[in-house]
Amino acid sequence: MKIAILSRNKKLYSTRRLIEACEQRGHEPAVLDVLRTYMEVVPSKPEVHLKGLTLEPFDAVIPRIGASVTFYGTAALRQFEMMGAFPLNESVAISRSRDKLRSLQLLSRKGVGLPSTGFAHHPDDIQDLIKMVGGAPLVIKLLEGTQGIGVVLAETKKAAESVIEAFMGLKANIMVQEYIKEAGGADIRCLVIGDKVVAAMKRQALPGEFRSNLHRGGSASLIKISPAERATAVKAAQVMGLNVAGVDLLRSERGPLVMEVNSSPGLEGIELATGKDIASMIIEFIEKNAKPHKTKTRGKG
Fold first, then answer.
1. Among residues 161, 179, 197, which one ends one of the domains?
2. Which of residues 188 and 220 earns the better pLDDT score?
3. Is 237 found in the same domain as 208?
4. Residue 89: inside a domain, yes or no?
């Protein structure tokens, strides 16, 4: 199969591993910088161009689209979908998961466990917003933040009021979330492929830090997850419409709670922590499922 990997840097660990897995299984990978692709949108004959050349159709596309280029990246992916390529994750599903508030609303509608979350626009509503999520301490998140950037733990009500007012003053979109104390600065990253959790790791924050992201210096270790955690992770990925997802869970007194669903999960941390060949599992999934013009969402929001 001809497989396009939409990645801005072919030297990144995840991209390198996907190239290796493609080649080992006899496929022909091509790494395309998504921001250098451009589209011709015409009836019946959609095309993608790169550096003056018209790209030949691909059998499948693996999107490794960064959060900062979601709009352009999903537009390019949509064009590949229209040309008949099988997307590992569909453009609509990526857009859903990238919008933090939208993704939580969709998960809540399906009864998936979540931390209590509040969203408001007007400063007059701050007091009720804080009360809504159980008071301080609480977590304040920028809707556009990634890798733990734009996430603040407000330990007191006064601090929460000040931070929320500051973000609102900057016209930033934020949500306020219940702080799950019993998680102890740790979360669980479940790697879902299809309808299975194929690997899981515990991410522990540094002492004095509550964000467990590996980009923030957190550590990763192998963990055994419960059937409830496994079922929650799979359901969260399915609600988003993602074939491959990194689902971040918190362990709470009321069961597993979904913090985030990541449509382009990094492979380095989880492959090193678990010793599993996730890249080959992803290519195997494509082999079993790739068919021309096979998209589930068909333009639904």
1. 179
2. 188
3. yes
4. yes
What range defines the domain where residue 107 resides?
99-112+182-286
What ranges in the chain are assigned the alpha helix state H?
Answer: 13-24, 70-82, 91-98, 100-109, 126-132, 157-169, 227-240, 268-274, 278-289
Instruction: Please state, rounded to an integer, the average pLDDT across all residues of the chain.
Output: 90
Contacts of 161 (CB under 8 A, 6+ apart): 126, 127, 130
What pTM was estimated for this model as a whole?
0.88
Backbone dihedral angles phi then psi of residue 78, each to the nearest 5 degrees: -60, -35
Sheet of strand 151-154: strand arrangement: 117-118, 174-178, 138-142, 151-154
Q: d(Cα 231, Cα 195) in Å, to the nearest integer?
A: 9
Distance CA 260, CA 177 (A): 12
95, 127, 142 — which closes off a domain?
95
**Is 263 found in the same domain as 231?**
yes
CA distance 130 to 232: 27
Whole-angstrom CA distances from 18 to 4, 46, 275, 284 are 10, 27, 16, 11
Residue 264 included in any domain:
yes
Mean pLDDT of 140-161: 82
Q: What are the tokens at 285?
A: 């999934």
Pairwise CA distance, residues 111 & 93, whole Å: 19
3-state secondary structure 246-301: EEEEEEECCEEEEEEEECCCCCHHHHHHHCCCHHHHHHHHHHHHCCCCCCCCCCCC
Please spell the DSSP secondary structure of 95-124, one letter per residue: HHHHSHHHHHHHHHHTT-----EE--S-GG
Could you give the CA distance from residue 130 to residue 151 in angstroms, rounded to a whole number? 16
Query: What distance in Å separates the CA atoms of residue 133 and residue 173, rounded to the nearest whole number?
Result: 17
Number of domains in the chain: 3
Average pLDDT estimate for 35-56: 92
- Whose tokens are 């599993």? That residue is 276
